[in-house]
Structures are given as structure tokens and as C-alpha cells.
Amino acid sequence: MRIYPAIDIKDGKCVRLTQGSFSDVTVYGDEPVEIAKQWEECGAEFLHTVDLDGAQKGSGINRKIIIKIAQALKIPVQTGGGIRTIEDIRELIDGGVSRVILGTVAVKNPELVEEAVKEFGDKIAVGIDAKDGFVAISGWEEVSSVSALNLAEQMCKKGVKTIIYTDIATDGMLSGPNITAMKQMADSVSADIIASGGVGSTDDILSLISTGVEGVIVGKALYAGKVDLKDAINRLASTGGEKC
Q1: Upper half-sphere CA count for residue 28 (Cβ side, 13 Å)
Q2: Which of 59, 177, 208, 238 could form a disulfide with 198 if both were Cys (CB 3.0 to 4.6 A apart)?
Q3: How many domains does the chain have?
Q4: How many Å apart are CA 38 and CA 85, to the nearest integer?
């Protein structure tokens, strides 16, 4: 299992939301590129980034910053938020991003996901953000009638190899991940599952090993000092749970 430190960008700054609420924003830094370099220096093997403005408004407002991050690091970077077209995907990949995460478009235009997978292969991932088991879209401001598990199954049939699964109820709460939901998703589909939401300690990270997820995204816990990234990576490696 791999730890993905998260950098969420809003108005050009590194921030965290609580339960996806744009009215509950905490700013943790004005220099996302420098923060990304810190996580790389701590031993991160892969970085997770989100353009929150893009997710909410449907355009890549912070895309240039994310490309700067990808070009500044030696480790791979994945990103999501506001990615709606093949041209958006191509711009990010040409800019050095290793994996592009499609969210809202997977619900509203699943044919684009299929087209993207045919062109870009495993550089395409799908982000499924769930509230009470149903998919939330448009920066989590709208809950669809689509079941998270059903969407995951559909995406796997289209060739998607990686799914980032976020439990909105736990996101930013530091209260522990939704182990049951993550295990159910990992057991139900063939894609690699990256868990997101709720991590508040290194023990929370270790608790996910048994679910079978490929990785875990850690955001607020890092910025709030609840998790020391270097220590967490070492502890994960000592359990045999580190996936290199």
C-alpha cells in the first residue's frame, strides 16, 4: 500500500476543506510547489493534487500550478478537478502529470472516459466521491442518483485501472476512514482502489491494509500535524504494507 500526500489548490493556495464544503476552507500555504517538494523530500512516492476551483467551476483554473508541481518533482503526480475534455487531459499529460483523474465527467459523459482510456491507457483514473453510497459531482455540491459501486463497475468495463474512492462523510474530519466502504469497493471491482477520507493518524493508515486498497490519500492529517509522513512511510514499510 502506498501513501499519497494531498495538495488541494484553491485560489492558487494549498487548502483543505471539511466534508467537501467550500464554506469551510483552511489555508495551509501560499506556495503549493514548495509544499510538494517537502512531501517528496519526506519520501513520498506519488503525489495527489486537486484543482478545487476547477472541480467547482468546471475549468482548470489552477492547472498551470499543477503542471509546475509535476515538472518540479521527480516522483509522479496525479491530479483531478475541472477536467472535462480530451484536450484538458492532453494538456496535463504533456505538461508532465503522470495520472489524470476524471470525476464529474465520468457520470455526465462516460463515453469520454472510454475515449480517454483508449488514448492514454493507465494514465487515466476515475475519482468516485460518495455520500451515503451515491456519487457526488461538481465539487461535491451535487449528489447524483448513481451508486458508487455501480459507477466503479461501469468504469472497470471501460478499461479504467485505478479508482480514487472518497467517503465525503469522513473527509477532513480526522475521525478515521470508512473501512467497510473501502473494503467493499476493493472487493467488488478489478481496479486498484486508492482510499480517501478520514485519516487522522498513522494507525488509521495502517488500518486500511486489510481492506486491500492500493493506496491511501492523506491530506488534512499531514497539515494539522497528526501524521508525520516520513514516520508513516517507515511504519507502513515495516508491516510489509508498503507497495513500491
Answers
A1: 20
A2: 177
A3: 1
A4: 31
Global pTM value: 0.93
**Do the beta carbons of residue 128 and residue 152 sit within 8 Å?**
yes
Which of 8, 51, 53, 88 is labelled catalytic?
Answer: 8
Q: Is residue 244 part of a domain?
A: no
* Residue 138 · residue 55 · CB < 8 Å: yes
Average pLDDT for 208-219: 97
Question: What type of residue sits at position 109?
Answer: N
CB neighbours of residue 101 within 10 Å: 24
Question: Is residue 241, in this structure, part of any structural domain at all?
Answer: no
Among 122, 50, 43, 34, smallest CA distance to 75 is for 43
129 catalytic residue (yes or no): yes
- Poorest-pLDDT segment among 37-51, 67-81, 126-140: 126-140
Find the DSSP H helices in the chain: 32-41, 52-57, 63-72, 86-94, 104-108, 110-120, 148-157, 179-188, 202-207, 220-223, 229-238
The backbone region for 81, taken as left when phi is positive above 0, alpha when psi lies in -120 to 50, beta otherwise, is left
pLDDT band at 139; cut points 50, 70, 90: low
Instruction: Please report whether residue 82 resides in a domain.
Output: yes
Instruction: Please determine, for residue 74, whether its predicted confidence score (pLDDT) is greater than 60.
Output: yes
- Look at residue 21 and tell me if it is in a domain: yes
Question: Domain range holding 99?
Answer: 2-232
Does 196 have pLDDT greater than 60?
A: yes
Answer yes or no: is pLDDT of 59 > 80.
Answer: no
The pLDDT value given to residue 244: 36
Q: Which among 51, 53, 88, 129 is annotated as catalytic?
A: 129
CATH number, residue 52? 3.20.20.70
